[in-house]
Amino acid sequence: MTTPALPAPTVPLSRAGLARRYGVARSIVTRTLQQAAKAHAQDPTRTPPPQPLNPGEPIELFDPHVFDGFWYARPGRGRPRTSDRHSDPNTTGAA
User: Fold this and answer.
1) DSSP letters spanning 11-54
2) CA geometry: angle 38, 10, 32, nearest 5 deg
3) How confident is the model at residue 1, as a pLDDT?
4) Helix axis angle, 26-42 relative to 15-22, nearest 10°?
5) How far apart are the first and last CA of the chain?
6) Whole-angstrom Cα distance, residue 95 to residue 82?
7) Which helix (H) or strand (E) holds 67?
8) Of the candidates 74, 72, 67, 65, which has an alpha carbon nearest to the alpha carbon of residue 15?
9) What is the rounded CA–CA span in Å between residue 71 and residue 33?
């Protein structure tokens, strides 16, 4: 008889660890958390940023599974990416 597989243990990650996970600079993770906290303070209906597992410590640690949901649901920045220039009626399609 085989035992069911247990879920992989979650190793908490610092902001630097999260930055490596997402392939961005640490400052991007910090800025994203700050922007989400500010947006939530201005409009409580917005989702708050994930809270660290050890608040107040010099190096805050986050649950990567919780942070993944926050990271991938965050609003995009900059110009929208599209491969079809003609889909926007405000553009002429000229390069």
Assistant:
1) PPB-HHHHHHHHTS-HHHHHHHHHHHHHHHHH-TTSPPPPPPSS
2) 20
3) 54
4) 110
5) 64
6) 14
7) helix 64-73
8) 67
9) 9
* Tokens, residue 49: 């940023």
C-alpha–C-alpha distance, residues 24 and 19, integer Å: 5
Contact, 28 vs 36, CB < 8 A?
Answer: no
| Distance from C-alpha of 77 to C-alpha of 80, rounded to nearest angstrom | 8
| Burial class of residue 12 in the structure, from the number of CB atoms within 10 Å of its CB (0-12 exposed, 13-18 middle, 19+ buried) | middle
Residue 4, class by beta-carbon neighbours within 10 Å (0-12 exposed, 13-18 middle, 19+ buried)? exposed
Quick one: pLDDT at residue 74?
A: 84
* Burial call 50-71: b when 16+ CB within 10 Å, e when fewer: bebeeeeeeebbbbbeebeebb
Please give the model's pTM, rounded to 2 decimal places.
Answer: 0.70
Per-residue pLDDT tens over the stretch 10-41? 789 999 999 999 999 999 999 999 999 999 99
